[in-house]
């Protein structure tokens, strides 16, 4: 059984100051910017609260910080999207996500095109409705893709490498967690888990927190792609759709 993120640990990290993790030395084959991931088997993805969104209900661009188990920040991520799509298309909107290191250098780029969901998850049976995100690390070099696959009323995704070969998959967990499993779905190797915040924050904002676990020796491209999968899960299941939250 893969390790789970301790909820107490995640809550503690939310209170930590934003100190940055020192950049490790990577090997010659390490993609620039992914050196931070070489030593990690879990990360916390924390969405930054938007006071303006809380008081007005106006959907703003998402921003996130990514931290290690010591509470040190390793990345800062920000959404780039069309304002009209954010207000009218909600969680189905297209977006570009730039992920920067402590120097402000973009090290990961995540792209998601607009996809129409036909009358909810259960009726989105056509491949043209399936969600896809492309993860580049560094920008211009494809690290992998996250693709939705048909699962009737269950949300299922596969994680592909740069060559389009399936390397991992997701499976629904016992609660909100998405299990990360081998491509044959026989073994769990990690999780993407939601950390529930206080009730006012959950009701009034889209500010969500996630814990990700994966093997320390997992390929760096796969780790970066899993982070991209976490952003997609946040958009698909915890963003407002119209005027309502989608849980």
From TrEMBL:
InterPro entries: Scramblase (IPR005552), Tubby-like_C (IPR025659). It comes from Macrostomum lignano. This is Phospholipid scramblase. GO terms for molecular function: phospholipid scramblase activity. Belongs to the phospholipid scramblase family. May mediate accelerated ATP-independent bidirectional transbilayer migration of phospholipids upon binding calcium ions that results in a loss of phospholipid asymmetry in the plasma membrane. It holds the Pfam family Scramblase. GO terms for cellular component: plasma membrane. Its cofactor is Ca(2+).
